Input
Amino acid sequence: MKNSSVLATDNKYYHYALKIHDSLREGTPEANPLYISTKKGVMIDGVECADWMNMPGSISSSINPKESKCSVSSVKIKTINKNYTISQWLMSRTNADNTMTYGEKAELWAILSDGSLVLIYTGIIRDISSDPLGSYYEFGIADFQDRIKTAIFEREFSEYSTETVADINTYRLPGDATKGFYMTEVDEGDTDEDGNPIDTRVITFRGHVIDFVEYIFEIAFSTDTLAIGAHYLSDDWRDFVDTSTLDKVRATLSGSMYEFYFEFRESIDDPYGFLNENIYQPCAIFPYVNSEGKLGIKLHEQPLTGTTGITISEANIITVDSVNTTDENIVNHIKTTFGWNFKDNEGTTSILSADSTSFDKFKILIPRDEAEEYEIKGINKLSKTDRATFAKTLTDSMFARYALPTQEVSVTVPLEVGTQWRVGNYLFLTHNTIIGWEGDSAGLPGIGSTSEPDPVDPYDGNSYMDVGHEWAGFIEGNSLGVALDGTTVIDTSLVEISVDLFNNDTVLSCKKNQNEAISWLSSQGW
Amino acid sequence: MSKKMMEIIDHKMNLKNGTVSIKLLDTSFTQLSRTIGSVPGADWETVVAGDMLSKEMLVSLNNSQLDIKPRFENFAADYRAWIDTKKTFLTLEKFYFTFSSVVDYTDKYIVDKTVANYNMLTEIVSAEKEIYESGKYWCEANMLRNQTALKNWSKNRNYGNTVKILRGRFYVGGVKDTNVDSINSDGLTVTTSIIGSSRYIYISGLQNMTVGETRTVHVKAKGETETGQDRKAEFWFNIERQSLGTTNDDGTFRTWTSMSGGGAYDNSAVYSYTGNYSPHFDGSPSLPWFKQRVFK
Output
């Protein structure tokens, strides 16, 4: 009789299947994808997979959210080359004109005990090798981020380029003079080898930070030739990115403070690193890879009401591997630099910020040697007021997340439980012994620590003022409302937002501020 | 049983064993966030405790912020225009401010979708800070710098506190040397020096005059002709510390001279400066203050 509990040993023999796509010919009769699996009888797209695949090893991903880094291990899939079928498939793919093999999309599926398929990894083919006799093949698959590690704009800035600026703008740079990428020639006093004055080519970018991310993906996936429409890699970067996360971040960071401006005078050697330093870090975004292996991005922010569904507890934890208190992720000392001079590649204004609550606890600034530095290059076009606010928002978000002691817990769960989540997910941990620190003075209690939330929210997820419900409004300890002259303009200490913030003119509210501004203008004769 | 919200930072799928090892990092978030809703007709100035944070309310707040912007921009243009009127003799710093947060937010507020959290509140606070800082911080700093420039400029101009010495000249007709018989200095300090056959007269101590006051230095002069005849003449050097007709009235010196008997004179004029600036340029600068300044 089969044991139907979640941890039943019968269910440990998982199987896997791999599909290597034929993206450019998808839907046509010539399309020739490859389907292999570790056992017989697995169907994908109505095709039975050849059961020649070896059991894959492990796949891991990790994030360092404080540094906005996400790394995903590559996967090697070995398959038997029975009857030289794989060799033949490979030759026909590499010899065909309008298809590709390197850079092609590959999907890895787990086949659970009930026969259902779960997509656990999406990547691109990076290398293909075989033994000398051709008895097996090994496909190396890397995650999407690998593609954005090759330099861009090399061709456009090449000294020997014969392409005109007009052609580059039309065919190679997405956007135009007001939005996106655009190249101009500027007299900056440069000369060529013979001493003749030449103009400097400068590529500018104007647009929302998420626009920039999308454009970089698009450029990284674009062709090397001048003509548009001829791809040599997988069809669309959108296959590899969870675009709903881009839309979500764009909707949250919709203020005009997130309209960035960049200048480039040389190629970007590492677009992945560039995105990390110039978009992700300044905007308190970090990338993660979702359960389908697609890249997503998220903000360091509290999740929405209603995020109560994902809980792990003794019922689905196999082992608790470790519980650590660590200061690896702590930062209470940040330096933001902006007012960027692109030509000389240096900032003109720096602000040092420290989190006093954290400092009081630790009695030292962390990092110890020097402040964690964030260079914000994209905000030159903002008003001086907004630049300082932008820097403040970043430090507030980082301190809110990383200024206080952190606990790290490592657990092992079954595959069918764990495949639902990826790095960057939030979940609730309920376990009698692990979280015995609840209620002690070390660390913060966290969400839901004192009682179960109401199953039905009387406010239907909307925010109401002065009703005492959870709000996740102003980050605790922020200095957002303090102007450059040190005057507090708006009281931003409320965690639960009140009407007072808006129209109570006896406190530091919008009403009071506007009244005072209007009377200042009157005193100026306007 | 209590729950703790944590974030997955490491995720390792062990495909052979069919397990996943995850590393969780504590979050320290203390609240969950909520979205904005809709209340038709809501106005930010009349909402009360217990009301929903609605799109309509936020749009009305945004509109109030937007109303202030053109007033400010017109003021700044007027200030720049005033600076232009002085450009032939003064180089002052024009004031510009580009608002990047006080912009139309209407489209970005989506009912039941836009999260009412720190990011959304940052934009509102940013706009309010721009409204405050554009005037009280950036403009006032610019006005103080321009005021300093005016003070420095005034050090070499004719104002009550800046003029040290007025110099005039008098000559008794036909004489070899003009000599002084008597001088009634009317409370001022007067000295003379020889210049050829005439004399310079130096008048100082002008700061003792009150604004509006007129003093007259009465000189009785004499001399001898080549042939030994005596000649006489009298000169009245008049000085008025004329009112500027506006606030911080430091006055300015108006001079005119008259004579009886034969001779000639040069009306007194500014000869040297005290090195101080004129208190006409003291006070709290504002656009009306700038417009009231009198430039001598």
The longest strand of chain B covers residues 230-242.
